[in-house]
Amino acid sequence: MNTKTEDTLTSLKMLSAMEREMHERATKVGAHILSVHALMVAGVIENAAEFIEEQHKEISALKAQLAGAGTTLPVAGQRVVIVGNPSQEFIILSEMANGYLITPSPTDENKPLEDVRIVARDRVVFTDPAASSTFNA
């Protein structure tokens, strides 16, 4: 859990404890409306803290599963260039056992694909992933 999340949880727990204390004091002096309000606020705060902790556990478990499975992100739709030909950009259509199925970019999605080819993995260099757009085949 990162520091910001830990600090948020600590603050929520402290706030909840303060609200519970306010509930007890309000009950002692007969301020029932304030007592009920403080109790409700404490309950909501405790639920929020529990929710954050549960989400952290689930996210950690998913990260562990991904790391254990050795999965990689899908490459379909990413832009690449072929080694030795940096002037022509291509879009990966599919990942294959020994390479990628690619087509030149830009591609008109309303027309049949032309010049589709298979290229070995070691002959491909990925361009900036932030500039890539998904190809909708």
Automatic annotation (TrEMBL):
The upper taxonomy is: Bacteria, Pseudomonadati, Pseudomonadota, Gammaproteobacteria, Enterobacterales
Q: Which organism is it from?
A: Escherichia albertii (strain TW07627)
Instruction: Name the source's superkingdom.
Output: Bacteria
Q: What protein name does the entry list?
A: Prophage protein
